[in-house]
């Protein structure tokens, strides 16, 4: 088993057993695997259940990333994940970000993502953002949007706080829509509508600043 496969497997195993997972610095592959694991781990039979295609796609991607031999099929069966009732495994389930510099971060009460060892990173040009046209970025393990509102730049997570699907911007209504179960959020991250049994949390905000003509966000 490759080193990164072992690390992800150990992490998720700990969650399945209700233990505190070991901290590590995920690379891109591990980050993707953890996201898929999180989405799977938050599924509940009969509650907020996504389509069969969505579930099988997640499962396939997770299994491919974890173990090309198929040995993981038993260990990561949906039934086992569901039976354990595991809460969010990583960033996506509750608007949490993965910090490559120090393991996993939970979203603080302030609702602003505050990665450890964070740095300001340029993600675009100010001229590329307008009232109706946000900037979509991915940097340092954080997916987000930068909106221009009342003359100010504002950052918000692009990861749905329900089960971690990536949100899409709708120009007509100037809000963010989740392609998985239809929740919608305002450009400041507030929940606008949903059809779930319980309301998902607001989206975490992301620190943004302007440096000359650049837009910078604070990421891990
Ligand atoms: Fe379910 Fe977004 S993942 S509403």
What is this entry, summarized?
25% of the residues lie in helices and 25% in strands. The chain is built from five helices and 14 strands. The strands form four sheets. The protein has a five-stranded mixed sheet with strand order 3-12-7-6-5, with no helix packed on it. A four-stranded antiparallel sheet has the order 8-9-10-11, with no helix packed on it. It has a three-stranded antiparallel sheet with strand order 4-14-13, with no helix packed on it.
Bound molecules: FE2/S2 (inorganic) cluster
Beta-strand percentage range: 25-35%
Main sheet characteristics: 5 strands, mixed
Overall geometric form: flat
- Helical percent range? 10-25%
Question: H/E series, N to C?
Answer: HHHHHEEEEEEEEEEEEEE
Radius of gyration: 18 Å
Number of H- or I-type helical stretches = 5
Distance between the termini: 28 Å
Structure class:
alpha+beta
Strand order, sheet with most strands:
3-12-7-6-5
Low-confidence stretches: 41-51, 65-110
Mean pLDDT: 70
Counted beta strands: 14
3D architecture notes:
This protein is α+β, with helices and mostly antiparallel strands and 220 residues long. The chain is 25% helix and 25% strand. It is built from 5 helices and 14 strands. The strands form 4 sheets. A 5-stranded mixed β-sheet has the order 3-12-7-6-5, with no helix packed on it. It has a 4-stranded antiparallel β-sheet with strand order 8-9-10-11, with no helix packed on it. Helix 1 (3-16) packs parallel to helix 2 and helix 2 (28-41) packs antiparallel against helix 3 (52-66). The radius of gyration is 18 Å and the shape is flat. The relative contact order is 0.15. Bound molecules: FE2/S2 (inorganic) cluster. FE2/S2 (inorganic) cluster is lined by residues 160, 162-163, 165, 178, 180-181, 183. The site of FE2/S2 (inorganic) cluster has 8 residues, from loops.
